[in-house]
Amino acid sequence: MEVYTTKDMTVSKYVHDDGSETSIKTIGSCNNVLNPLTGKTEELEDRNKYVVFVSSSVGCKVGCKFCYLTAKSYPYAKLTIDEIVGNLKEAIISKMIESPELKKKYVKISFMGMGDALFNLDKTYMVAWEILAWIHKKGFAAGVDGIDIGTVLPSKTKPQFFRDVLSYLETLVGVYERNPQSNSSSGVRLFYSLHSFNSIVREYLIPGTRDQEILFSIKYLRELFEENPEDLIFHQMFLDGINDTEMQIETFVKTYRNTLNDHELRILKFNPCKNSIFRPSNEQREKEILTLLNEHVNNIKVQHSAGSEIKASCGQFIMKTFK
């Protein structure tokens, strides 16, 4: 296993022998973060937790055009439940040796590593169940903060199964002591990647969503989270000349304001890669977009890219070799 850590020690990335990755993030020592919405330097809030990012496969079959995995033609391979859990244990043990103080914090399990967790819904619950039981037995956490799932494609083909899995996960979180500082009411949050409300642009960026109509997908997700709207959060990333034009932004702001303004919008920062044709919006354009969004979106957050040094965020993995 290879280990990469940011200079401030807040994000570690563990590259396993099968080629998949686990990332572990803490924010306790992240200080002096520039908030682009206010232009002021702020301190990130420490909610007494650490986050374990789960890779549900080696590589990813979604094929997002902007992803490092796509730029590097990285192979895709399924992982078994035992393989996923084994990788998580390997990473967590390494982190606990380095930072034993994390045992006093609450753990969040986040299915936002390699692969889209909704391709393997049955594995999602089993992996969460096994790893939380193991963490509890080992005393590697004070309790559970929650479970996050990131996706580009809600599982509309098996709607009842999807509902059941979410319900099972909520029940699972309830078994353990909850973090009193958790910002999730149900304990389970879903992060859905937008990147554009224009189907043609979105299909270009995310070819795996070809058979989806984004507004229907959003309607479906809103119905699922009707009782806990704060647990359905939307991701957006702006790319130069692709989805940051005046027309694109005008449509995005209007659609979000009219359909999703009771849900949080998180802006992700794109980390450029030399193998990729994509670049983030330039600084001036980004500022204009954020100013406009801030005027019309009720709840907006610019995600601090704590792992930018080691490219540890969805679609931002840099791999040396496939083992």
Low-confidence runs: none
What's the CATH first level? Answer: Alpha Beta
Strand/helix succession: EEEEEEEHEHEHEHEHHEHEHE
Give the termini distance in whole angstroms. 11 Å
| Helix/strand/pairing category | alpha/beta
Q: What would you say the CATH architecture is? A: Alpha-Beta Barrel
Range of helix content: 25-40%
- Reported by name, the CATH topology is TIM Barrel
- Number of self-contained structural domains: 1
Q: How many helical elements?
A: 8
Main beta sheet = 10 strands, mixed
Total E-strand runs: 14
Give the overall pLDDT as a whole number.
87
CATH superfamily: Aldolase class I
Percent strand equals 15-25%
Q: What is the global morphology?
A: globular
How does this model look, in words?
This protein is 32% helix and 20% strand. It is of the alpha/beta class and 323 residues long. It has one domain (2-302): Aldolase class I (TIM Barrel). The chain has a ten-stranded mixed β-sheet. It has a two-stranded antiparallel ribbon with strand order 4-5. Strands 7-8 form a two-stranded antiparallel sheet. β9, α3 (121-138) and β10 form a beta-alpha-beta unit. The protein is globular. The model has no long low-confidence stretch (mean pLDDT 87).
